[in-house]
Amino acid sequence: MMALVVENHALRLENGLPVPEPRLGEVLVKVHYASVNPTDSDIVDGALDLYLKLARSYLPTRTGLEFSGEVVNDSNRFERGDLVYGYVDLFKGHKTHQQFLCVPETLIARAPRSTSLKEAAALPLGALTTLVGLREVAEIARGSSVLINGASGGLGVYAVQIAKRLGANVTAVAGPGKGELLRDLGADAVADYTTQQIGEYGGPFDLALDLSDRLSFTDVRSVLTTRGAFMPADPSKHLGRMLLNPFSAKKTLRLLVRQGDTDLLTEIARWVDEGGLRVFVDRSYELADYENAFARTREHGGIGRVVMRMAD
């Protein structure tokens, strides 16, 4: 089996690793495609070493969170040959940049029937995270006003669609040339961050969702409603502001979905099959070309998620 291995903060491709054995409650999947996202680069660079150490994550393959593939063995929920997709635990357990993966059954679901497995691998993390963040954490509902910064990225393309599905009025912020796409996804207004300041985006907003992870509460405070909220992509950088939530009508909310959920992933797959949620692959690479795949995640201007083809 081939897999990407992190050693001394360097990434390399290794062949001949043993195929993992599933434990009780797990299923063995032959991985066809796996995404690459900025968190994977952070892991290679050592930015998440402390979290991984606390989670006692010592497996050689430490990168890769979402995937699609084919079930190898029958289990309680799945049968051999089922096409599935999912999002593994952010810190613990096996990661997806390997050709065979043992994953808990509760973290995966059957892949959408209307998409390719390449597209399915670009879906679970972004769609699931934004669904939970918007519907369960921020409690966005019909009539809410939502600002989405970083609206064309791997999470943003789903956040725009899901916010509209929940009935929100959406202002999408992205780079130049993205307006037509974002309006097609449902955005009511589009702003270009290269030519417009936050105060020119409109509002006031019930929620400012910053998927670019470049804004602070101070940046967005003036465009929030009286009881509006700021939701940054990386909550660990805003812990101080979160501690002040009890003393402020305007809150900083936590956006973090640590792992997949069968029921929510099944709901998302149904939306895709019904034509209510579009899937976006930015670029696709072969596993052997992993260096360029990782480099692409550091570039600006992509639409959707970078994926790698893992299967032979």
Short synopsis of the structure:
The chain has 312 residues and is of the alpha/beta class. 24% of the residues lie in helices and 27% in strands. The protein is globular, with a radius of gyration of 19 Å.
Question: What are its keywords?
Answer:
27% strand, 312 residues, 10 helices, 6-stranded parallel sheet, 7-stranded mixed sheet, alpha/beta
Task: Describe what this molecule looks like in 3D.
- The chain is of the alpha/beta class.
- The chain has ten helices and 15 strands.
- It has helices at 38-45, 49-54, 117-120, 124-137, 156-165, 179-184, 217-220, 239-243, 262-273, 290-296; strands at residues 3-7, 10-14, 26-36, 66-71, 83-87, 100-104, 108-110, 145-149, 169-174, 189-192, 205-210, 224-232, 251-252, 281-286, 305-309.
- Strands 3, 4, 5, 6, 7, 14 and 15 form a seven-stranded mixed β-sheet that branches. A six-stranded parallel β-sheet has the order 10-9-8-11-12-13. The protein has a two-stranded antiparallel ribbon with strand order 1-2.
- The radius of gyration is 19 Å and the shape is globular.
- The model has no long low-confidence stretch (mean pLDDT 93).
Q: What is the 3D shape?
A: globular
Order of helices and strands: EEEHHEEEEHHEHEHEEHEHEHEHE
* Helix segment tally: 10
Largest sheet composition: 7 strands, mixed
Report the mean per-residue pLDDT as an integer.
Answer: 93
Straight-line distance between termini: 10 Å
